[in-house]
Amino acid sequence: DGSIHLSDYRAPAWRIVHADLEFDLDAGATEVTAHLRLQPDPEQPDAPLRLDGEDLQLLDLRIDGAPLPSDAYRVDAAGLHIEGLDGACTLTSRVRIRPIANMRLEGLYASRGALFTQCEAEGFRRITWFVDRPDVMPTWRITLRAERAQYPVLLANGNPVEAGDLGDGRHFATWHNPHPTPAYLFAVVAGDFGCVESRLARADGREVALAVWAAHEDVPRCRYALGAVERALRWDEERFGRVYDLDVFNVVAAQDFTMGAMENKGLNIFNARYVLADEDTATDADYMGIESVVGHEYFHNWSGNRVTLRDWFQLSLKEGLTVFRDQEFTSDLHSRAVKRIEDVRLLRARQFAEDAGSLAHPVRPPSYREINNFYTLTIYEKGAEIVRMLHTLLGEARFRVGMDLYFARNDGRAATVEDFLAAHAEASGRDLSQFARWYAQAGTPHVEVKDDFDADGGTYTLEIAQRTPPTPGQPDKAPLHLPLRFALYDAEGRRLKVDPRADDGSGDRIELTAARHRLRFHGLPSRPLPAFNQGFCAPVKLAYDYTPSQLGLLARCERDPFNRWDALQRLATGVLLEHFTDAAAAGAALLAALGDLIDDEGQDPAFAAECLLLPDFDTLAEAVPSIDVDALIGARNDLLDRIALEHVERLDRRYHALAAAAAGGLEPAAMSARRLRNVCLDLLTRLDPGAALAQAQFDAARSMTDRLGALRCLVHHDAPGRQAALDAFAGRYATDPLVTDKWIALVASRPHPDALLDVRDLFATQLWTPTNPNRVRAVLGSLSRMNPLAFHAPGGEGYALLAESLPELDGINPQVAARLLAGFESWRRLAGARRNRVEAVLQGLEGRLSSPDSLEMLARLRA
Ligand code: DPP
Ligand code: ZN
């Protein structure tokens, strides 16, 4: 079926040791001349040379300067085959490509008069003939020639070497990348850009010139991203000892971009949404997102570029590790507790759903048809959780030694997950062979804890069992090696000193390796209250039969802030899903705890805001065997109404009390205040008088955070001023595509059946630009991922709306279409007629999609 298997890996028969490329750039027709220095693998002496290439018009082909006769090679849809080469040689090819016709945004493409590339994972083969796999790592020399008027700025990987005039209004620039670099990290940018720049001293004493580029009118909005680059560079030196390795580091913003950003060597290309920001157009969440993505891409320079991947099955080796690194970057610079809560919220809502649905796959998948389909929450977020567990098991100091060894030993090489674990095993002396199962086994582990207290002897026993449910293709699972932190509290919430034979003497952590463990504690005066998985140190679903009052106590006394938040999430989940025998007491405990939080001025407001947010629809859907959409949405709405009614005065008081702090700029205290204030406003707008408050905030707002927060309240709670506010907002930002995406996303995620009509209306306007991935996601991603009420409309209209647009989108940008299809990943667990409706919609898509991306997704969804 066209699948590629990890077990079939073979080293490349031919390597490219150096690539010298020349581009005659033009949006309509670009010519690429490639001189590739080729070396055969001595172990595979007679293997033919096979080069990847797609949609290339071949103009010329030479070996060591001599034209190749046409019977000496063969071209098919996927590649170029040459037999009978005897040994190292230089292949020169000249091809023509058509950037302007490239809607897939893979390879070289045009966007708003400029030219950009995107090569990960397999886009480089759309630029020239090449051995396009990550374990082929030449050094590079890249010369760009173009018209100066349209393309005054010419950027490529590495350091600038030379630039000059060519006459006739044309000019050139040559770049050199001395580091062995696979083709997926190749990049070229040409266009009329401006930049903000700065110089930093590297830890090794050399200087690096940093620049962030964008269309001229957007340059003033690049300052924050530049500062984020500076912070990232410094942080990686300090925390990981990783020093930058070129004289320049360039970041360029592109409005048409499929991914979030791309870590090309020395020339990161970003989706504009992760670069451009000022107070008038960016929310606090946007700023945080920019800093974390800038960090992420920068950190790839070591975890991904210097040490790259042997093959695409190892994708999480760079992505999981780099997400862990960017999470730590954000945690070190901002609130560690709030960052952890946000990350776990995403993991539970989206990765757990992926791991429990039709698209579940291990962090290292054993096979794929289209690698683009594996840039998933599992590869990224679960991959990061695995690295975090390793960090917990080894401790910061030994983890750092292991990382240093990993980087030193694999520098300039294409590595595997085994190389990563071997470095950590060697540096720490620990056996990580069972831990390696985390990479091979899909599904979220369930850890169930039962306990018993023997009052006579004061003996307390914990019985801990783990099991991982079956996933597609993996019916049976083996026990995993995982760290589990825990603590015991007495009835007053005082922490009890215990010694569970913990290996590191800290007495608050055990390592699970078997399916069952028993822990005994002696000499306890009374039955303790246990707390588990502090900091969410293992990515599992942990079940323990808490009473509402125990959760209320934990929410106050747990030392670990993540677990204080989690106690309230458990309490809320139990109330919403009617898990508690005394429902009235549970509801009262939750309301009391939330009331205290609203009033508590000693608490970080951002933390309080996180606590006031109930588990979202996806998280609840993950917690039930069968998804009753109406029941989940109804229960959630009822509880939110109840919280608003019960605490209306408190919310109102706090909302006003936070006004002064919220009026500040980008300092943490102001961001934190705005966060809680907007959560208060959202609850208040559920009640009639709140609408006036939201309207007032909208009218007076001085930041995008407050303006968009108020607009969301007005739109999502059907306030009277909703349409006028939307029109005012849309008019004010009509020329800004990123802000336009924001209001479109609000409309498409409005929890009202009419959202489907609004989306249909959008399709009929100029605002619907199916070639722009951000816009497609603002419309259809918001509908399918952020609007369960409309997407799951009982008659199946939401499913039909998404499915209808997929054939056209698939013809434009297969990656975007395939990602939207994943919105159906949990369909088999839908209750009632909805499951049948999705099934019919998926069946109706048979024969209407053509990309390998979408065909693989559809097949997995229907398997
Ligand atoms: N650009 C994507 C990321 O950084 C893929 N490498 O995650
Ligand atoms: Zn990445």
Task: Characterize the structure shown.
By secondary structure, the chain is α+β, with helices and mostly antiparallel strands. Among the domains are: 1-100 and 112-184, tricorn interacting facor f3 domain (Immunoglobulin-like, Sandwich); 447-547, Immunoglobulin-like, CATH 2.60.40.1840; 733-863, Peptidase M1, alanyl aminopeptidase, C-terminal domain (Zincin-like fold, Alpha Horseshoe). It is built from 28 helices and 32 strands. The strands form nine sheets. It has an eight-stranded mixed β-sheet with strand order 6-5-9-3-2-12-15-14, with no helix packed on it. Strands 17-18-19-21-20 form a five-stranded mixed β-sheet, covered by helices on one side. A four-stranded mixed β-sheet has the order 30-26-25-32, with no helix packed on it. Helix 3 packs antiparallel against helix 4 (336-356) and helix 18 runs antiparallel to helix 19. The longest helix has 21 residues, at 336-356. It starts with a strand and ends with a helix. It binds diaminopropanoic acid (DPP) and zinc ion. Diaminopropanoic acid binds next to strand 20 and helix 2.
Topology:
Blueprint (H helix, E strand, L loop, with lengths): L3 E2 L8 E11 L5 E11 L8 E4 L4 E7 L2 E2 L5 E3 L3 E4 L6 E9 L9 E5 L2 E5 L20 E9 L5 E4 L2 E9 L2 E8 L10 E4 L1 E9 L5 E9 L7 H18 L7 E7 L6 E2 L4 E5 L12 H16 L8 E2 L5 H19 L2 H21 L10 E2 L8 H18 L1 H15 L3 E2 L1 H12 L8 H4 L5 E9 L4 E9 L14 E8 L5 E2 L12 E4 L3 E6 L7 E4 L8 E3 L4 H10 L3 H16 L6 H17 L5 H8 L4 H6 L6 H18 L1 H10 L1 H4 L5 H17 L3 H13 L3 H13 L5 H11 L4 H12 L6 H9 L9 H14 L1 H4 L5 H16 L1 H8 L11 H13 L6 H11 L1
Parallel strand pairs: 2-12, 18-19, 19-21, 22-24, 25-32
Antiparallel strand pairs: 1-23, 2-3, 3-9, 4-8, 5-6, 5-9, 7-8, 10-11, 12-15, 13-16, 14-15, 17-18, 20-21, 25-26, 26-30, 27-28, 27-29, 27-31
Helix pairs in contact: 1-2, 2-3, 3-4, 3-5, 4-5, 4-10, 5-6, 6-7, 9-10, 9-11, 10-11, 12-17, 15-17, 17-18, 17-19, 18-19, 19-21, 21-23, 25-26, 25-27, 26-28
Bound molecules: diaminopropanoic acid and zinc ion (ZN).
